Amino acid sequence: MSTNVTRDDIEALRAKRDAAETSLPASEREAQKQLHWMRCCKCGAQMDEIVFRGVRVDKCLRCGGVYLDDGELEQLVGKPGWIEALRTFFGS
Questions:
Q1: pLDDT tens across 25-37, in order?
Q2: Where are the domains of the chain?
Q3: Contact 60/45 with Cβ under 8 angstroms?
Q4: pTM value?
Q5: What's 1's DSSP letter?
């Protein structure tokens, strides 16, 4: 049985994460950013930024993962044929 997550649930989780992150020293936050910046969360490889249908997305060329920053999915959804284009462009 799955539960639908509401926008309020996401905001509460975001606030909790923000509080935990701000309690870290600035040097630790910067070290984590340097360690993970543009790294694939699936395989750890360096990701590349590519332009897909006018939207800049992050793609892992090792495992094929595609990652969207906040707002990028909404930009793509508004374009006709976006699902088919994703399948063709990124393959599966």
A1: 888 888 877 777 8
A2: 1-37, 39-92
A3: yes
A4: 0.60
A5: -
